[in-house]
What we know:
By secondary structure, the protein is mainly alpha-helical. It has helices at 3-26, 48-54, 56-80, 83-109, 116-158, 165-172, 177-182, and strands at 31-33, 38-39. Strands 1-2 form a two-stranded antiparallel sheet. Strand 1 (31-33) and strand 2 (38-39) form a beta hairpin.
Amino acid sequence: MNEKMFCLLVGVFSLLSTIQFLIFDLNEVIILDYEAQFSIYMEADPGISPWVLTHKRNIRAGLSTVTIVVSFWLLYCSHSSNYAGLLGSALWAVAYELTSFCMVLLINRSLKEQFKELSYLHLIFQVSRILLPFFCLPFIIKHTYTLYKDTKASRTTGRHKRPSISTINHSWSNVGLGTWCRM
């Protein structure tokens, strides 16, 4: 498989896994008994962790929507050999995965003691989601660099350079005075 195939593979995987994890996240049960309002999360001290917990669905929906758009963009840029789009997609993949991992760590701190095993499941899901994009990231970067070099080379070969004075003088030095007289 070449670099372009890896780019397409990462785009399709990113698209499908983002949709899958968005469905899991939006359907996650956090209140077990609706009458007693028993939550799996403990009341947290003020800070970033309760804010992330409160706005988790909105954050994940926003990140997932952007990731789906970027995945389609990665597929298009891979097909059209656009190196800037591939680089942007790779940077977004790193930012998205790091943000998601930090969110999982923050949310796992808020789990009640009875549900600590659930934190391991969250971490396993997150690490499994990170593996393929990070494994294929060097291939995307290599393909981006190859496209960048090809684009740069085609730009420089397309220009016509004017000869310098030294080149003109050097090329006329072979023409002697006798050659001029015969003309």
